[in-house]
Amino acid sequence: MKYRTIYQMCHTFATLMIEHGEDVLWVANMLGHTDPSMTLKMYAKYRKREEKERAIFLMDTA
Q: Out of the domains of life, which is the source (predicted)?
């Protein structure tokens, strides 16, 4: 691996953590972001998108 700056290493760390499903709040804390919205703004595009039903509990009419 060629030389990387600290900024590039932080970016790589965040990308890999989020890409592999790590909690965004934890990643934001590790990066020193005061607000997780900054982390999401920068790295949300790396989150895996699972094809699964969401909010199924809302359909429970029992």
A: Bacteria
* Domain parsing of the chain, residue ranges: 6-47
* Cβ atoms < 10 Å from Cβ of 58: 7
pLDDT-derived band at 61, boundaries 50, 70, 90: low
Task: Evaluate if pTM is beyond 0.70.
Answer: no
pLDDT tens-place string over residues 8-19: 888 889 988 888
Structural tokens at position 58: 């809302």
Q: What is the DSSP letter of 44?
A: G
**Can you read off the two tokens belonging to residue 48?**
């895996």
d(CA 52, CA 38): 26
20 contacts 46 by C-beta, under 8 angstroms: no
